[in-house]
């Protein structure tokens, strides 16, 4: 979290396929909460077992919102 720049970094850890629904819901809530307050958010998805098979499709609805970014760590 960097207050002077209005930047937040959120880490999401994908352990198994069942985690994706909850993570997607959490990200949606974060977009609403932080986006409405003019924060920029970089979501870091830690996915060591490659549960997310299509990074572009996963990221598209997130990056469609202004100020939202997604990165993956394998």
What does this entry look like structurally?
Strands 1-2-3 form a 3-stranded parallel beta sheet. The protein has 2 helices and 3 strands. It is of the alpha/beta class and 74 residues long. The protein has helices at residues 19-35, 55-63; strands spanning 7-13, 40-46, 68-73. It starts with 6 loop residues before the first strand and ends with a strand. 35% of the residues lie in helices and 27% in strands. The model has no long low-confidence stretch (mean pLDDT 92). β1, α1 and β2 form a beta-alpha-beta unit.
How would you concisely characterize the structure shown here?
The chain is α/β, with parallel strands linked by helices and 74 residues long.
Order of helices and strands: EHEHE
Number of helices: 2
Strand content: 25-35%
Helix content: 25-40%
Major beta-sheet overview: 3 strands, parallel
Tell the overall outline.
elongated
The radius of gyration is 12 Å
- Number of DSSP strand runs: 3
Q: Give me the secondary-structure category.
A: alpha/beta
Strand order of the largest sheet: 1-2-3
Low-confidence stretches: none
Distance between the termini: 22 Å
**What value does the average pLDDT take?**
92
């Amino acid at each position: 979290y960097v207050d002077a720049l209005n930047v937040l970094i959120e880490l999401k850890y994908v352990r198994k396929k069942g985690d994706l629904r909850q993570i997607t819901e959490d990200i949606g809530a974060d977009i609403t909460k932080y986006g409405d307050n003019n924060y920029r958010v970089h979501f870091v998805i830690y996915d060591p077992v490659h549960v997310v098979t299509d990074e572009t499709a996963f990221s598209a609805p997130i990056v469609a919102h202004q100020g939202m970014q997604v990165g993956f760590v394998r």
